[in-house]
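Collaborator request, handled under Task 6.
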Amino acid sequence: DVTIAAATEVPVTLENAGAVDHNWTVLSEEIAAEGDFSEDLVLAAVDNVAGGASGEGAITIDAAGTYQVICTVPGHFDAGMVGSVTVQ
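Structure tokens returned to the collaborator:
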């Protein structure tokens, strides 16, 4: 869980210490189950990063609020890979 400033570009580095792909995806609406995910909910993301690698991106979210962050790799949301970004 992280807090960022609204309307400010924030760099994101995803360090994947695991053995399988992961990503970091910020959603415009909270979902309750993996099956509720659709690409049109994506506000920002760091694309899939292979195990043992790192990936970089940047996010800018204009509206204040709390946004759900998930890993969209199948099975990962259901395994608990969920967090939040609070925008102030």
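The cover message to the collaborator said: "The chain has a mean pLDDT of 96. The chain is about 0% helix and 45% strand. Please let us know whether this matches your experimental observations."
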